[in-house]
Specification:
The protein has 470 residues and is of the alpha+beta class. It is built from 11 helices and 13 strands. About 1% of the residues have low confidence.
Length: 470
């Protein structure tokens, strides 16, 4: 990339040098042409009184044959010579010496606008390269002479050579500087990229703690390094969560498996002789199997909501779901002496998967019932701007402040000692968090010092008529 940019810059500089040289050459030649045209005009003005009739009594041939007259129009680098109509010299300025201006062999040259007569450039002549202007002198309807005014190009060509050396020498020097700077920039640019590449190669699943730690670099590579370090931090945290998840899942499943295995062995030994032992063993196996099923189902839900396909979403009436869940769980709440109250506004439509949204409401409600000994559990659903706000409030002991920010983590238990006496997988609120995130919403928890907890879920509302699916 650096080589490509350097090449483009070198070509641009070369184009600039060529254009500058061509422009300077044009300016110099135009200046010479205007000077020659001015001299020719002076000669024509001087000839007007000499013509017979309209030109006067003196022949222009006689005047143009006078060297002294022609010398008045000549000067340093300016030559004047007159030729008769047959092309033979009539007279010339003394600075030509024995040389004559050529009357043929000129390369046509485009004179600037406003000049007259013929124009040409002769690369070789008796006096060197010249820019010549010629004008025909007529008497009546016939030509009697042609006057040539020539400008020497020696000084102009020397100036152009000096300019060419300056421009193209500067271009060559610039090319050298560009090449050197490109090498330095390439090394400075590729070096850090190589360092990042080495860091990527060195990083593995067991070594995510490596960081570039580029400090004080405000350029794009510094931003890339900072982004890379942030990505590594996220990956490290994700790997840590997955390891903890696997360890916790293994720990949670080990206990029911151990109980099932022990009771299976007891059945094998005592089931035939002891009816009571058989009943207890079967009850324990059923209970632990149900616990394992809940854990596995929760883990499957977590995996599903990690990559939920929103194209399968449909418009769901949250009002109906809240009432259905409240009706289904009211007997469970009443068996503990609790009141389960549902206060849901109608017309709360959201886009989502009905089964997941039902599980979201059920998990929150079951969790509130589970940790509430006396009082009530209230489900309230109201609109808050463009969102449906679901609050699940209980009158339980509340959640310690230090645990509030962790309750949506997998297998987190605010009070592990107490949680051992409460049936559960430790995944209920983690499942809630994943479902809410998959539906583009937010979830938060708050617990007052006097007890009681409220879990608030906010989901985007779909207005009636916005989507035809129901």
């Amino acid at each position: 990339m650096t080589l490509w940019y350097a090449s483009v810059l070198a070509v641009l500089l070369l184009v600039f040098a060529v254009v500058a040289y061509a422009g300077a050459r044009r300016v110099l030649f135009v200046s010479l042409a205007q000077r020659a045209d001015g001299v020719a005009g002076e000669i024509l003005e001087a000839l007007k009184p000499t013509f017979n009739g309209p030109f006067g009594p003196v022949s222009p041939v006689t005047m143009l044959s006078d060297q002294a007259t022609l010398d008045t129009f000549a000067g340093p680098g300016v030559y004047v010579e007159a030729f008769n109509r047959d092309g033979y010299p009539l007279g010339k300025s003394s600075n030509l010496g024995t040389a004559d201006l050529p009357t043929s062999g000129y390369q046509a040259w485009r004179a600037p606008v406003g000049t007259s007569g013929g124009w040409g450039v002769a690369g070789r002549s008796a006096i060197g390269p010249i820019l010549a202007h010629w004008h025909t002198i007529s008497s009546g309807s016939s030509a009697v002479a042609t006057v040539y005014v020539a400008e020497s190009l020696d000084y102009t060509e020397q100036s152009l050579r000096a300019l060419a050396i300056l421009l193209f020498g500067g271009w060559a020097l610039g090319l050298l500087v560009i090449a050197s700077a490109s090498l330095v920039l390439a090394r400075r640019a590729i070096g850090p990229i190589d360092e990042i590449a080495r860091a990527v190669r060195d990083i593995g699943g067991e070594d995510l703690g490596k960081r570039l730690n580029w400090q004080g670099r405000p350029d794009e590579l510094g931003a890339l390094a900072a982004t890379f370090d942030a990505m590594l931090a996220r990956l490290e945290a994700a790997f840590a969560r997955e390891r903890r998840f696997i360890a916790d899942a293994s720990h949670e499943l080990k206990t029911p498996l151990t109980v099932i295995n022990a009771n299976a062995q007891m059945l094998e030994r005592w089931a035939v002789r002891d009816e009571r032992s058989r009943a207890e063993a079967l009850a324990a196996i059923r209970s632990e199997s149900a616990t394992m099923a809940k854990i596995i189902n929760a883990m499957l839900t977590l995996a599903k909501t990690d990559s939920v396909d929103q194209s399968a979403f449909e418009v769901v009436d949250l009002h109906a779901l809240v009432n259905d869940v409240a009706t289904g769980l009211r007997p469970t709440a009443e068996s503990k002496g609790l009141r389960l109250v549902a206060d849901a506004d109608g017309g709360m439509l959201v886009r989502g998967e009905p089964a997941l949204l039902r599980q979201l409401i059920a998990n929150l409600t079951e969790n509130a019932i589970k940790f509430t000994e006396t009082g009530s559990v209230t489900l309230s659903l109201h609109r808050n701007g463009s969102a449906a706000l679901l609050d699940v409030r209980d009158t339980g002991p509340g959640i310690p402040p230090h645990a509030l920010e962790h309750i949506f983590e997998r297998f987190f238990r605010a009070d592990p000692a107490r949680s051992r006496d409460v049936e559960g997988t430790g995944l209920g609120l983690a499942v809630v968090n994943n479902i809410v995130r998959a539906h583009g919403g937010t979830v938060s928890a708050d617990s007052g010092p006097a007890g009681g907890t409220v879990i608030s879920v906010s989901l985007p509302v779909v207005d009636a008529g916005e989507d035809g699916e129901m």
